[in-house]
Specification:
Elements (H helix, E strand, L loop, with lengths): L1 H9 L3 H25 L2 H25 L6 H20 L8 H20 L4 H4 L1 H11 L1
Helix pairs in contact: 1-2, 3-4, 3-5, 4-5
Length: 140
């Protein structure tokens, strides 16, 4: 924040910039605590958004480490499915004592696996044939 907002307008010396960085850090660190103490629903919302971020992480990890499941369609369906199921689970008050984090982790896995089984070959498989064609052209 200091480099994006403070430095361009005030053009401080390096010492003043360091002092303002420390001041901004303390203010930004304390502000959320004030909200959590006086508005506890914000903390609950933070746990909910944590679950949604987990589903994004699951989809990214599947794309990197399980390229068989890497398709735009599957990733989009996984994100939509996770958002809907996690929101519904959260709104129901985490039934059976199962936290919405587990729903957010499982939903993308299930949706992407179903998409792969129903739709067949992953679109990423077509891209793997291009390097082979390039190698054939360079070897001749």
């Amino acid at each position: 924040m200091v480099r994006d907002f403070y430095v361009p307008y005030w053009k401080p010396t390096p010492e003043r910039e360091l002092k303002m960085t420390r001041l901004f850090s303390v203010a930004i660190g304390i502000a959320p605590l004030v909200f959590v103490f006086f508005i506890p629903e914000i903390l609950k919302l933070s746990f909910f958004t944590r679950a949604l971020r987990l589903s994004i992480t699951i989809i990214a990890m599947m794309g990197f480490y399980l390229p068989l499941f890497a398709s735009n369609r599957g990733a989009t369906a996984g994100l939509i499915g996770a958002a809907i199921s996690t929101t519904a689970w959260y709104m129901l008050g985490n039934p059976f004592g199962i936290d919405n984090m587990y729903v957010a982790a499982a939903t993308p896995l299930v949706v992407m696996a179903v998409e792969r089984l129903v739709m067949g070959r992953a679109p990423a498989a077509a891209a793997t044939s291009q390097p082979n064609a390039l190698m054939e052209r360079t070897s001749t």
